[in-house]
């Protein structure tokens, strides 16, 4: 596997989730390319799931549709100017669904949601638009109740992980009418209980171990799902597009994150066109792979991480892990 692998580092357009760049490894198998780019704070157990996803992408005969696309949302980070970013999402990418990161102070959060709603409504008069807000568990119960209570009349599709704990989510669900989506709260060892405190589940293909693993998880959770990216390059995004096409073809997927990349492993980054992305395999451009190769230390870092993860996959029992939002 390592013989066909290339380590890479690509830059983000602006800071997102505290990151300025993404780094990892892509490798080629008989079916295509897999991307192993777990986040820096991941444990070896989490790395192992990601590696399974990359191996599935490279070695399984995944069946991509001939000519199909899915709608995606644009994503706006919490340090971005939301007006400028929404305008770009509409003008450049044609997205009618915007996912907005919140979880700052209540007034700022409210202002940002209202600004996005106003711009969307003005750009698509009379048409279907949607806003997804993601607090990444940063609101307490009272703050969540306060903020969400003031969004009546806005096209809020759902609020993602408004609070951190299950008990807060349970209480909040009794207080508000906005559907609650969860991602950080989904625990692999407690899938059956998710529908007690949530209306939708956000699933990320790479951290979950691939399309087959994500499909099994969706079945066990028993809720509508939205497939979201883990900030992969265009190469790593491709299996997630297929999962979204298979598991939630009529909903906007959270896969518009190519727009966050300043540099990429392909000439034309996978970004939405008229709000949609083609569901297809993506191969890295050899010259870009070469020019985005990191320095020596990082190459050995990735080799060691991949080897440790691979060793764990080979073991019969694996520890259960919490997932990353
Ligand atoms: Mg989230």
What are its keywords?
37% helix, TIM Barrel, three-stranded antiparallel beta sheet, disordered C terminus, seven-stranded parallel beta sheet, binds magnesium ion, 325 residues, alpha/beta, 11 helices, Enolase-like, domain 1
Summary of the model, kept short:
This protein has 11 helices and 12 strands. Helices cover 37% and strands 19% of the residues.
What this model shows, in words?
The structure is a single chain. The protein has 325 residues and is α/β, with parallel strands linked by helices. It folds into two domains: 2-63 and 292-313, Enolase-like, domain 1, CATH 3.30.390; 69-278, Alpha-Beta Barrel (TIM Barrel), CATH 3.20.20. It has helices at 44-59, 82-91, 106-123, 141-149, 166-175, 194-197, 205-208, 211-221, 234-247, 286-291, 296-313; strands at 5-16, 19-28, 33-36, 69-71, 74-76, 97-101, 130-134, 156-160, 180-182, 200-204, 225-228, 276-278. The strands form three sheets. A seven-stranded parallel sheet has the order 5-6-7-8-9-10-11. The protein is globular and about 55 Å long. It binds magnesium ion.
Low-pLDDT residue spans: 320-325
Q: How are the strands of the biggest sheet laid out side by side?
A: 5-6-7-8-9-10-11
CATH fold call of the largest domain:
TIM Barrel
Structural class: alpha/beta
Helix content: 25-40%
CATH class of the largest domain: Alpha Beta
Average pLDDT: 94
- Tell me the strand percentage band: 15-25%
Please give the alpha-carbon distance between the first and last residues: 29 Å
Q: Count of helical segments?
A: 11
Radius of gyration over C-alpha positions, nearest whole angstrom? 19 Å
The major β-sheet equals: 7 strands, parallel
This entry's quaternary arrangement is single chain
Query: What is the domain tally?
Result: 2
Architecture per CATH nomenclature, i.e. the level-2 architecture of the largest domain: Alpha-Beta Barrel
Topology as a string of helices (H) and strands (E):
EEEHEEHEHEHEHEHEHHEHEHH
The CATH homologous superfamily of the largest domain is termed Enolase-like C-terminal domain
Bound ligands = magnesium ion
């Amino acid at each position: 596997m390592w013989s066909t692998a290339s380590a890479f580092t690509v830059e983000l357009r602006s800071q997102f989730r505290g990151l300025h760049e993404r780094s990892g490894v892509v490798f080629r198998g008989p079916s295509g390319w897999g991307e192993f780019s777990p986040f820096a704070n991941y444990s070896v157990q989490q790395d192992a799931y990601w590696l399974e996803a990359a191996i599935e992408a490279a070695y399984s005969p995944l069946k991509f549709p001939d000519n199909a696309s899915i709608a995606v949302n644009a994503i706006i980070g919490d340090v971005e100017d939301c007006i400028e970013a929404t305008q770009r999402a509409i003008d450049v990418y044609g997205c009618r669904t915007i996912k907005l990161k919140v979880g700052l102070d209540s007034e700022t959060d409210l202002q940002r949601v209202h600004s996005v709603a106003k711009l969307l409504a003005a750009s698509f008069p009379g048409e279907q638009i949607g806003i997804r807000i993601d607090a990444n568990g940063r609101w307490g119960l009272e703050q969540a109740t306060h903020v969400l209570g003031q969004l009546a009349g806005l096209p809020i599709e759902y609020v993602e992980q408004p609070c951190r704990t299950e008990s807060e989510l349970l209480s909040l669900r009794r207080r508000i009418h906005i559907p609650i989506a969860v991602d950080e709260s989904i625990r692999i060892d407690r899938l059956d209980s998710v529908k007690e405190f949530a209306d939708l589940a956000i699933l990320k293909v790479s951290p979950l171990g691939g399309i087959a693993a994500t499909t099994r998880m969706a079945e066990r959770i028993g809720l509508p799902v939205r497939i979201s990216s883990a900030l992969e390059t265009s190469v790593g995004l491709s299996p997630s597009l297929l999962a979204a096409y298979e598991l939630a073809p009529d909903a906007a997927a959270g896969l518009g994150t190519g727009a966050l990349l300043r540099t990429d492993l392909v000439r034309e980054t996978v970004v939405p066109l008229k709000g949609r992305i083609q569901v297809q395999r993506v191969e890295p451009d050899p010259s870009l792979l070469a020019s985005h190769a990191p320095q020596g230390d990082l190459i050995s870092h990735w080799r060691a991480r991949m080897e440790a993860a691979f060793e764990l996959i080979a073991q019969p029992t694996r520890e259960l892990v919490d997932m990353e939002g």
